[in-house]
Design goal:
The structure is a homodimer of 403-residue chains. Chain A is of the alpha+beta class. Helix content of chain A is 33%, strand content 25%. Chain A has a six-stranded mixed sheet.
């Protein structure tokens, strides 16, 4: 029941990237749960990982491997997070890389980055990898992006992927990305995996700073339930196969396209949020700083009372005010706060707007995409936060996930 | 469906306090929704109010009145919060005090403290007060604590009240208190009202410091949904009618009894949390500071994933670890973290305990009172946080509250 999110179409291959998805029976039966992504030699990678102190085994291994070698293969399984699995889990994560490298010419284990998503606290069955890695290698092809997007899903109901092409000085470059995630979604990463590849050419430093900047305005601005995961990872790979460099004037154009891809992939996660029936944007304006705007946006977006009112299509704007009022903003002057629901003025200078009628509010709340706009009257900075509503199905999905 | 919470019994009158509860038809029909509490001349009051920047009109008026006069009457209505009601709401809150004072000899409007709880954003109907204040005054009696506890309820399902008597140097003193609250419950107050009275004798400074200390260990350690309200207030009144002073050795004994009363009233709110089926204690030990212990406790207590797992009686301890891992604690060393579910060791030194079995976890999770004990291995400070689980009924109650 994702909100205005549809299966990916017209995905474009990226020169230098081949993918495959196979059914390894790690947890799910009868669907792909193991994805392999091959990057041409000479590719550069940038990465962002979860900030959760209890990070999962594959995150530790991927970080270590990134520090010592250039990645050639990304090995991603769904169904089991290999988190909270202690020393044994760490050994298994390393072993999956070793197993893959053994099957390949000229690939060392450190050139493989492992990723896992799924249930926490169960050991990852290595034999599932041993049994299916040969067929995963055999199935590698450049037009398997849609299969990869489907293979990394857990509680997702719709696969998430998008392509963009932009004309740069030197030629056309392609960006294609996939993501997954539905619950445990919160800024600073979540049970969220995303892989974006381009055939543009860039050094690792350029890629990493681009990815960090763009992440702060996209993936770090979404929240479903405030829970961040042990496994989150976002990878940006540039194969350089187009020969078109990301530098000079190209940088601005490429950044914009990358931002569009990441925004789509991030918002897709919210649209497919566990139990979501509405897609909600909290736009905070006239803040003293971006942090302040984000803090207010996040407080409103995470309020269970706001989220249940959204689910009920109830313009219970008092809950929005109460959430703004408890946001961690020093000396908030409520007499300068103005709030709109869609285009309808709700609150003006901290007081209910004289023009507001309940009917206006209900008209907006009936929609499946709702924007709450909040002006703090403290400065000229703005930031958006995207979230979904809180429904019976959220509880159902999370109460029954393991059973 | 409150968790091990039963209607109050054996409430003791407090010399110098008379109460009444009447049906004013403010929102609810056929039940009391207006409570009047009279304090004998010479009583002292301490108060704690919401920190929400969008505080309600009665909170502003009560604060103002406390600054200029000694309170003689507390006037509390349920069904309408008089919050988000702008200048008109402020005038109405003041007018309710004026109306009451007009009906009394030797009482000025400033000696009345108004309190409201209920729906936000609707104007409070003054005529309901005008019509019923005479009968509220006529009904004042010292044995109406149970009626007062019932009259201040909103989504509460059980009235909350308790009495304690302690023998002090100089005689026996009584403490009786009532509270209400069910949703929008979070540290630093919530849609929570509590009124505690004693016939002990104390100056305002002593009372206020006692109340602040005790609040930090009781009312500020509960959370239902992370939302704090615009209306929270906690009042401690000492009538002094017993002639027994709270000073010297008496201070310690009185403080302990006050703490017990406040702990009961605070935990009662969690036990009656919206949709609650379980009462959960998060005990964080070996923290570097109390703030750190509270931060971890609150992060775990507020995690929708932990709360839905509790509802499902699912020992999905990975979610507890993930919540600890994202707590705002600098440089958390996960290899020093140990976690128990009840008496069952779950995680030892950051790794799943070898002795743990799923059956053990399920035994604990079946109970309706569950303790999660977390040792951080960073110091010797501890703190508890109390919360409830997250059920279908939480969503139902909050999605349908206004309809």
């Amino acid at each position: 029941m994702a909100v205005n999110l549809f299966p990916p179409e017209n995905l474009l291959p990226v020169d230098g990237v081949r993918l495959s998805a196979v059914s390894a029976g790690i947890r799910y039966q009868g669907r792909d749960d193991l994805v392999l992504m091959e990057l041409a030699e000479g590719s550069q990678c940038a990465a962002v990982f979860t900030k959760n102190a209890f990070c999962a085994a594959p995150v530790i291994v991927a970080r270590d491997h990134l520090a010592v070698a250039s990645p050639r293969y990304l090995l991603i399984n769904s169904g089991n997070a290999n988190a909270g699995t202690g020393e044994q889990g760490l050994q298994t994560a390393k072993a999956t890389c070793v197993e893959l490298a053994k099957l390949l010419d000229d690939c060392q284990a450190e050139s493989v980055l492992p990723f896992s998503t799924g249930v926490i606290g169960e050991q990852l069955p290595l034999e599932c990898f041993q049994n299916t890695l040969p067929s995963a290698i055999g199935a590698l092809a450049s037009d398997h992006w849609a299969q990869a997007a489907a293979g990394i899903m857990t509680t997702d109901t719709v696969a998430k992927a998008i392509s963009r092409q932009v004309e740069l000085d030197g030629g056309v470059v392609t960006i294609t990305g996939v993501s997954k995630g539905s619950g445990m979604i919160h800024p600073n990463m979540a049970t969220m995996l995303a892989y974006v590849a381009t055939d543009a050419m860039a050094g690792q430093d350029t890629l990493q700073s681009l990815l960090t900047e763009v992440t702060n305005e996209t993936f770090n601005c979404i929240t479903v339930d405030g829970d961040t995961s042990t496994n989150d990872a976002l990878i940006l790979a540039a194969t350089g196969q187009s020969g078109v460099p990301i530098a000079g004037a190209n940088l601005v154009v490429f950044r914009q396209a990358l931002q569009e891809v990441c925004l789509y992939l991030a918002q897709a996660i919210v649209r497919d949020g566990e139990g979501a029936t509405k897609f909600i944007s909290i736009d905070v304006e006239d803040a003293g700083s971006r942090d302040e705007a984000r803090a207010v946006g996040e407080t409103v977006a995470l309020s269970p009372l706001v989220k249940t009112a959204m689910f009920a299509s109830d313009p219970n704007w008092g809950r929005i005010l109460a959430a703004i009022g408890r946001s961690p903003v020093e000396n908030l002057d409520v007499s300068k706060v103005t709030v709109w629901l869609g285009d309808t003025l709700l609150v003006e200078n901290g007081q209910p707007a004289a023009s507001y009628t309940e009917e206006q509010g209900q008209q907006v709340m009936k929609r499946d995409e709702i924007t709450v706009r909040i002006s703090l009257g403290r400065g000229d900075t703005k930031a958006s936060t995207w979230t979904c509503d809180f429904s019976y199905d959220y509880v159902k999905i999370n109460a029954e996930y393991r059973s």
